[in-house]
């Protein structure tokens, strides 16, 4: 059995036994074809089953390096490696090929995606107008839900909180006018941090509490329609409905408000270490991703404004 016959047998097995989708079969087949084409040049001959069984981790690393030189991203190379592992494993289990010592081979680590921030205008629109989706004719207690969403999204954008951090707050934590300037937040790893709260955010929360009504200090700050702690999925759905109503981009999500908080602070000249503390990042390298966002924004502005950018 030569390499191409082995590839065909594997793809047939994926289709019949694993019920893989046509898209998966096409992608994996292309990955295996690239690999076999590389081996033909790398080994000096079209590989057969014996040649495949004699491969070493260095051969796969050479393939990944060649794909990187061709412009494959880390994520693409990781996917190709996963497909090739599956191909070779199938040959070992079903066609008697010698087992390969590939257990220690690690694929490239995909880079963390660059956060996608909203424009300041879009972020302010969410923070001020998100409650417009609630119609008293369709929604029970629409004024409370509208005020709640404005308060919640104002807090996410104005203080850079994670949605889980905001929804874990109780009434005793509510940053109201006249209270301490900073909100104590419990974030990842059960770490606490202090986050300053803008007067506009305090006013939005006060307006929401006026609609919500009084409660015990240990009750949730943000309530759902049934009086329980608001679920993150409900908040995400509300913002999804608002962004369609307002014509905002698809990446307008609750977490994008946190990204926008950091990006807009950085663009205004805030210190990266200070932003790290405000966001509650354990590592500065996580916060440094926002420098790429800001640089991309500066480049886009330059291209729009500079007379010779075209």
From TrEMBL:
<keyword id="KW-0132">Cell division</keyword>
<comment type="subunit">
    <text>Forms a cyclic heterotetrameric complex composed of two molecules of XerC and two molecules of XerD.</text>
</comment>
<dbReference type="Pfam" id="PF02899">
    <property type="entry name" value="Phage_int_SAM_1"/>
</dbReference>
<dbReference type="InterPro" id="IPR013762">
    <property type="entry name" value="Integrase-like_cat_sf"/>
</dbReference>
<dbReference type="InterPro" id="IPR044068">
    <property type="entry name" value="CB"/>
</dbReference>
<feature type="active site">
    <location>
        <position position="255"/>
    </location>
</feature>
<feature type="domain" description="Core-binding (CB)">
    <location>
        <begin position="1"/>
        <end position="92"/>
    </location>
</feature>
<keyword id="KW-0159">Chromosome partition</keyword>
<keyword id="KW-0131">Cell cycle</keyword>
<dbReference type="InterPro" id="IPR050090">
    <property type="entry name" value="Tyrosine_recombinase_XerCD"/>
</dbReference>
<feature type="active site">
    <location>
        <position position="162"/>
    </location>
</feature>
<comment type="similarity">
    <text>Belongs to the 'phage' integrase family. XerC subfamily.</text>
</comment>
<dbReference type="InterPro" id="IPR023009">
    <property type="entry name" value="Tyrosine_recombinase_XerC/XerD"/>
</dbReference>
<feature type="active site" description="O-(3'-phospho-DNA)-tyrosine intermediate">
    <location>
        <position position="290"/>
    </location>
</feature>
<comment type="function">
    <text>Site-specific tyrosine recombinase, which acts by catalyzing the cutting and rejoining of the recombining DNA molecules. The XerC-XerD complex is essential to convert dimers of the bacterial chromosome into monomers to permit their segregation at cell division. It also contributes to the segregational stability of plasmids.</text>
</comment>
<dbReference type="InterPro" id="IPR004107">
    <property type="entry name" value="Integrase_SAM-like_N"/>
</dbReference>
<feature type="active site">
    <location>
        <position position="281"/>
    </location>
</feature>
<dbReference type="Pfam" id="PF00589">
    <property type="entry name" value="Phage_integrase"/>
</dbReference>
<dbReference type="InterPro" id="IPR010998">
    <property type="entry name" value="Integrase_recombinase_N"/>
</dbReference>
<feature type="domain" description="Tyr recombinase">
    <location>
        <begin position="113"/>
        <end position="303"/>
    </location>
</feature>
<feature type="active site">
    <location>
        <position position="188"/>
    </location>
</feature>
<dbReference type="InterPro" id="IPR011010">
    <property type="entry name" value="DNA_brk_join_enz"/>
</dbReference>
<dbReference type="InterPro" id="IPR002104">
    <property type="entry name" value="Integrase_catalytic"/>
</dbReference>
<keyword id="KW-0233">DNA recombination</keyword>
<keyword id="KW-0963">Cytoplasm</keyword>
<protein>
    <recommendedName>
        <fullName>Tyrosine recombinase XerC</fullName>
    </recommendedName>
</protein>
<feature type="active site">
    <location>
        <position position="258"/>
    </location>
</feature>
<keyword id="KW-0229">DNA integration</keyword>
<keyword id="KW-0238">DNA-binding</keyword>
């Amino acid at each position: 059995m030569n390499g191409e016959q082995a590839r065909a047998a594997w793809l047939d097995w994926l289709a019949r036994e694993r019920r893989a989708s046509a898209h998966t079969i096409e992608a994996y087949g292309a990955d295996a074809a690239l690999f076999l084409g590389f081996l033909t040049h790398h080994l000096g001959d079209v590989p057969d089953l014996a040649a495949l069984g004699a491969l070493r981790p260095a051969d796969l690393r050479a393939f990944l390096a060649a794909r990187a030189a061709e412009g494959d991203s880390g994520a693409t190379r990781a996917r190709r490696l996963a497909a090739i592992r599956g191909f070779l494993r199938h040959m070992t289990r079903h066609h008697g090929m010698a087992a390969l010592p590939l257990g220690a081979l690690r694929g490239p680590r995909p880079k963390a995606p660059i956060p996608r921030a909203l424009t300041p205008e879009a972020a302010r629109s969410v923070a001020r107008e998100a409650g417009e989706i609630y119609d008293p004719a369709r929604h029970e207690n629409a004024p409370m839900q509208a005020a709640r969403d404005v308060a919640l999204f104002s807090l996410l954008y104005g203080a850079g909180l994670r949605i889980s951090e905001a929804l874990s707050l109780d009434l005793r934590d509510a940053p109201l006018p006249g209270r301490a300037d900073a909100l104590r937040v419990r974030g990842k790893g059960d770490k606490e941090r202090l986050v300053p709260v803008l007067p506009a955010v305090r006013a939005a929360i006060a307006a929401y509490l006026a609609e919500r009504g009084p409660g015990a200090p240990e009750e949730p700050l943000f309530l759902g329609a049934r009086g329980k702690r608001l679920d993150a999925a409900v908040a995400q759905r509300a913002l999804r409905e608002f962004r369609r109503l307002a014509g905002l981009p698809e990446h307008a999500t609750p977490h994008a408000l946190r990204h926008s908080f950091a990006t807009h602070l950085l663009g205004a000249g805030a210190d990266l270490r200070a932003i790290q503390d405000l966001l509650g990042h354990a590592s500065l390298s996580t916060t440094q991703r926002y420098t790429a966002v800001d640089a991309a924004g500066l480049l886009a502005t330059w291209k729009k404004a500079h007379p010779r950018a075209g």
